[in-house]
Design goal:
Shape: globular
Radius of gyration: 18 Å
Strand order of the largest sheet: 7-1-8
Mean pLDDT: 86
CATH class: Alpha Beta
CATH architecture: 4-Layer Sandwich
Number of helices: 4
Strand content: 15-25%
Largest sheet: 3 strands, antiparallel
Helix content: 25-40%
Number of strands: 8
């Protein structure tokens, strides 16, 4: 399943778009932090801290502009975005919950139906995706390509 973060941004009320354009959010290793504590009875905090030191967190604008299309899009997702810089915990949580709920509307989603020899490609910068295990017992093969820079010159 994919959601278009450009369409989501464009569907937000103008006053919210304007407000979000001035905000930044903290992104961290999100749900992947759980992989550091699986089957760990002792030292869970140590393993988690090791993972955090290795991967850390970063701060990104909530609204970004795509380098090719020049369209604005939301740059947040429930798996990695955990706090809005400058807001207290309650206000940050409330705003993120509003946005994540808004982002999950079916009108922003597409569900890809896998059939033999199909290929799906997406721009990870401006889509939110969720892998649904509806292809079982078949195996899904995925290759990630990262673009080093977007300069067209």
């Amino acid at each position: 399943m994919w959601s278009c973060l450009t369409s989501i941004y464009q569907s937000l009320p103008t006053h919210i778009q304007n407000y979000l354009s001035s905000l930044k959010a903290v992104h961290d290793m999100g749900d992947f932090r759980n992989t550091f504590t699986i089957n760990e009875k002792e030292g869970i905090a140590n393993k988690l801290n090791e993972g955090f030191v290795k991967f850390g967190s970063s701060i990104h604008p909530i609204v970004k502009i795509h380098p090719i299309t020049k369209k604005k899009f939301l740059y947040i997702n429930p798996g990695f975005t955990n706090h809005i810089v400058g807001l207290n915990a309650t206000d940050s949580s409330n705003l993120l919950n509003y946005l994540f709920t808004f982002m999950n509307k079916p009108e922003f989603q597409i569900r890809f139906k896998w059939t033999p020899n199909t290929i799906a490609m997406w721009d990870n910068r401006c889509t939110m995706h969720y892998a649904i295990g509806d292809y079982m017992p078949q195996k899904r093969v995925m290759h990630r390509v990262t673009i080093k820079n977007d300069n067209r010159d």
